[in-house]
Amino acid sequence: MSQYFRLHPDNPQPRLIKQAAQIIEGGGVVALPTDSSYALACQLDNKDAVDRVRRIRGLDERQLLSLLVRDLSELANFALVDNRQYRLIKSVTPGPYVFVLQATKEVPRRLSHPSRKTIGLRVPDHAITLAILEELGEPLLGSTLILPGETQPLNVPEEIREKLERQLDLVIDGGACPCEPSTVIDLTGEEPVLVRPGRGSLAPFGLEETA
Q: Which of 91, 114, 126, 108 lies closest to 17 in space, CA to CA?
């Protein structure tokens, strides 16, 4: 049975943030709000928790999960970016984007795409998620909470608990989120490539015409 915390979306209670971080550090898988929709998240170096996220989502190892980071100061630890890529990312973060980037050698093999050696990186613009990242002092591994066979993310905390209470350790109720996935942009080539349209605008990437 999952625990259920109700947090203020703009000023989350420090006591509950600390408890949520402890659950994650203990290997827990949590559902939490972001600036696009609810997402699943866990500790990035806990293989069992990562495998659980993949099972809930119905994802194989070739499908990228995203690193959720609190700001771009952690970018260089996980991704190789040039000045052009950095300026693009900085101009729209925090925000509802996942950027596909070339992974550094320090990134564990199971976290990067097995053949392309890429990784997804996201700086969410949501007070609850940022507070948890700050409390943990390290990134989370995350994935939009879309169940197998569905096209839209789960976005009602009570429904998330009802459907996944035996698979999650914690559901964080931060109120309603925009019911859209994040926009996924591949920045590994010469020009940005749209991988998945979502809440984030394509204008900064010159991709409006392909939306």
A: 126
> What is the average pLDDT score of the chain?
90
Q: What is the pTM (predicted TM-score) of this model?
A: 0.90
Confidence of residue 194 (pLDDT cuts 50, 70, 90): very high
Which residues in the chain belong to E strands, given as ranges? 3-6, 30-32, 39-43, 66-68, 79-80, 97-103, 118-122, 140-144, 170-173, 183-186, 193-196
Indicate left, alpha or beta for 58 from its phi (over 0: left) and psi (-120 to 50: alpha).
Answer: left
Identify the three-state secondary structure at position 105: coil
* For residues 116-135, average pLDDT: 93
CATH at 7: 3.90.870.10
Rounded to whole angstroms, the Cα distance separating 33 from 172 reads 7
- Write down the pLDDT at residue 117: 85
Quote the domain boundaries for residue 196.
3-210
Domains in the chain, number? 1
| Per-residue model confidence (pLDDT) at position 110 | 56
Distances (CA, A) of 184 to 13, 74, 76, 198, 206: 31, 19, 19, 7, 14
* Residue 111 pLDDT > 70: no
